[in-house]
Amino acid sequence: MAASLFSVPSYAATDSIGLTVITTVEIGTCTATLVNDSDQDISVVDFGDVYISEINAKTKVKTFKLKFKDCAGIPNKKAQIKLTKRATCEGTANDGAGFANGSTAADKASAVAVEVWSTETPATGSATQLVV
Asked: CA-CA distance, 81 to 130, in Å (whole number)?
């Protein structure tokens, strides 16, 4: 599965944002690994510097994959991915589609969120936004 991420709203207290992904496999005996475009294991999807022009143009995209291996006991060899918020989501009732920055760092970006999409290019063609 490849998913695209981009930052939403506009103002941030810092130039960097990251997304930490924690995987839990509940059925079978799979091992799930988060990997980058080069298939290297990672634990954080690092956006680096994020500029307002990139946010407005929806061009700040980081692609990652969840790689499953050594799977046994999964019906039809298909895994169902469920996103779970670990911090608040965007929106007035914390029910928005974007995942708010859950960092506890003093200089963390604020008023920003990350969206997760099913394709490398968000909001186009057959792209589906993955929500909580």
From this structure: 9
